[in-house]
Structures are given as structure tokens and as C-alpha cells.
Design goal:
By secondary structure, the chain is α+β, with helices and mostly antiparallel strands. The protein has three helices and five strands. It is elongated. The relative contact order is 0.11.
Length: 153
């Protein structure tokens, strides 16, 4: 498909700036961000996906294309972009390091299981059977969902 040079350049610049591009699967509809049609975006990204420059994902009538490292290098050559400029998906943000508390301190992200040492694990719960805290010698309470015992007549 022939795509005007102006439209092709606009799509490629947006793809490099953001690192990802989305297009709804309605061909004649205008793209949500760019002034091109979705068909032009879909066809251009289809060619880039076959060359390995982008990875395609499809969900809920939307195409998502993610730029690969080969695609970044290719777009740098095509658009004449210096190597110190990177797509937005590769930039580190201050929020990814930690969150800021109300008093201005940074709170670091805790890994799995950290900060849980003081908690005690309680037995029982919904559908777990016996109660461990029943007094010794007493039978646990009957389960309301258990089948009734058969009676001999």
C-alpha cells in the first residue's frame, strides 16, 4: 500500500517518541492521536512486524505494536536521530524507584514476604474444617453444609 511520505514520517516519529503505537481495527477511521487513518498505521506496522522491528499484540479490536531494539536502531537511521535520544518506554521515571511519603521520605518497594515477620498465621478459616481453638475434650461444631446422618427406622 502506498502511504504518503508525510504520513509515514508522522507515524514513525510517533512510534519512536512513544515506543508503542495503538490502532483500532476500523480501517477508515482516523487515528486517535495522529492525523492519518488507522489503515495506514496498520499496513505500515504490518510490514515492520514482518521485518522484526515491532512486536504485535491484538486485544479487544485494537492492535498494539511495541518497538524492538532492532526497530529502534532502524528508526534512528531512517529518521536521523542521535543515539542519546530514547523512546519513552525505555526512560526511567522517578516513580519507578520508590514512592514519596507524606513527610518527604522515599519508601522503597518491598519484596515478597518482607515486613510480614510480626504476623501470626492463624489456622482455620472458611472451609478449612476443625477449629483449633476449641477446648480440649470437646468435639468441634458440626458443619452446616455436611450431609445429614442416615437414621435407622
Amino acid at each position: 500500500m502506498l502511504i504518503a511520505t508525510k504520513n509515514r514520517e508522522e507515524i514513525l516519529q510517533y512510534l519512536f517518541r512513544e515506543g508503542v503505537i495503538v490502532a483500532e481495527n476500523k480501517n477508515q477511521k482516523t487515528h486517535a492521536v495522529l492525523s492519518v487513518t488507522n489503515l495506514e498505521v496498520i499496513q505500515l506496522m504490518r510490514g515492520y512486524a514482518s521485518k522484526g522491528y515491532v512486536k504485535k499484540q491484538y486485544a479487544w479490536r485494537h492492535f498494539y505494536w511495541y518497538l524492538t531494539t532492532d526497530g529502534i536502531n532502524h528508526l534512528r537511521e531512517v529518521l536521523h536521530i542521535p543515539s542519546d535520544i530514547v523512546p519513552a518506554t525505555l526512560k526511567k521515571t522517578a516513580r519507578s524507584v520508590g514512592t514519596v511519603e507524606a513527610d518527604g521520605r522515599r519508601r522503597q518497594w518491598r519484596g515478597e514476604g518482607e515486613g510480614r515477620e510480626g504476623r501470626e498465621r492463624r489456622p482455620g478459616g472458611f472451609g478449612r474444617g476443625r477449629r483449633e481453638d476449641a477446648p480440649a475434650g470437646e468435639a468441634p461444631a458440626a458443619d452446616a453444609t455436611a450431609a445429614p446422618e442416615e437414621q435407622a427406622w
